[in-house]
């Protein structure tokens, strides 16, 4: 197990380095002069070209590109992700205050998608080639094909405007000074559901496939022959083993989840990282966007690492 | 059912084979996976299986129709898609404007038809370039193996770590929105999927005895690629290319929806949906956002069904 984790970690190191490299290329591509961006307008009006040059060498921007890259990596490792153009605050702080709402939305959506996806996939496998199987595969295909922003707009149109069941956006009722937990859940349901729908498709597909393989194993036959109730066999013996490959599928889906967060948070005015990304793009606040791109990529790598290690812990065959 | 009768006419023209052909056809329909079809070439069997995938065939029809409409858009559009007409402000659907007019008095139907051109161009061009780049790198990795393979695969991992929409938004924001930029940027972050498939197939084909014998007889790497690898790589590659084009269309629509798509005032489906971010339009003018939303969903769904049909046709075991 340890040697598997070691090997897996070793593969991640060059990938993380590659992510650093590409993110640094993004930083270099950014329009605008970072020296001038750091100066206040009054300072800029009186600054002589010599002064600007002096600031440039103070910041190390006249050094060779590889030295700058090394210096940049040093900064990033210390948690310094640059300064926002629009608000004169460190990007890291801006991101940190938005992580909470995003995590709540993402975890809720992921849980909903997993529960529905696994149930649909399991029953589709048990009733292979039935109308239910057919319907669930067509439905999950539709779920991945309808663009999430269209789905979000339709959800608002139907559930918020026409039926008036759910609020159109935000995380809580703004008028209430101390919103109740129920109010927060009420605001969470619609965006989480829309986000979940985009994720369900692959879960159904892989659960079904994996379940079809597991259900034909000898130990399933043995359990049935022993007289274990069928549903207990399916969920106790079958699903337990069928779900192991799903950990990897969840990890592969994380970039899609992050993309979905950007769109759904924008539509539902959810004050998370996705909304921050959209606001930064509209305001051309490039350092913030680069930092978010960088952090998302690192998160994806770490999550994949975690998923692979989990799968290996659950299924010794993977470690080979 | 009449559709089945038509397609049941054997593709092979020889009359003495016709009877056998019919029987095989029925077996294919019953899910016999063409086991009886030893006399037919695999590609012919695949075409047959594809033709019996009803959803896939319907999707091909719909996509052909869409392609035709897109090509003919300048000829059949009732109005100039960008002609501003302040007299026709947000008019509901009528005889003169079948799908109404938008906030600038532009004809929604004409914009919808022209939007199809952008979506299909981006979908096809991005998928072709991503598949091309992925195939090239995948073949290189598969042939040279060793450290070349290791480097290419780590690069694939790096690119797959970035959440697609976020990184594409950043690049389009820096480089400026245009159809070409969007195509290039989407292709730049979508090629890894194709690369992985091609590498996998070429690695396994490499070990085949017939490739070994070709090598023993002195065939060079290029000749082996041309004669032995393109064939097996092609089927899975077609499926991947299909799915990539669906992805590209979704990404372009999301970009336009978020306001960073093709230059204004060009009509795009995502851009048309952007209007629905205003509550008044969402609530009272469904003709402005429902048609483009349905158009994106139907197009992407059709492409996905087509991809599904292709996958089943090439590899019937996948469905189990």
UniProtKB/TrEMBL annotation, chain A:
InterPro entries: BPD_transp_1_N (IPR045621), MetI-like (IPR000515), MetI-like_sf (IPR035906). Residues 99-307 form the ABC transmembrane type-1 domain. Pfam families: BPD_transp_1, BPD_transp_1_N. Its main location: membrane. One of its GO terms (cellular component) is plasma membrane. It is found in: Cell membrane. The chain crosses the membrane at residues 9-30, 103-126, 138-165, 185-206, 242-268, 288-314. Keywords: Cell membrane, Membrane, Transmembrane, Transmembrane helix, Transport. It comes from the Bacteria. One of its GO terms (biological process) is transmembrane transport. It is a multi-pass membrane protein. Belongs to the binding-protein-dependent transport system permease family. This is ABC transporter permease. It comes from Phytoactinopolyspora halophila.
From TrEMBL, chain B:
InterPro entries: BP-dependent_transpt_permease (IPR050366), MetI-like (IPR000515), MetI-like_sf (IPR035906), Oligopeptide_permease_AppC (IPR053523), OppC_N (IPR025966). It is a multi-pass membrane protein. Residues 1-38 are annotated as: Disordered. Pfam families: BPD_transp_1, OppC_N. One of its GO terms (biological process) is transmembrane transport. It is found in: Cell membrane. The keyword Transmembrane helix applies. The chain crosses the membrane at residues 55-76, 118-144, 165-188, 237-262, 287-307. PROSITE patterns: ABC_TM1. This is ABC transporter permease.
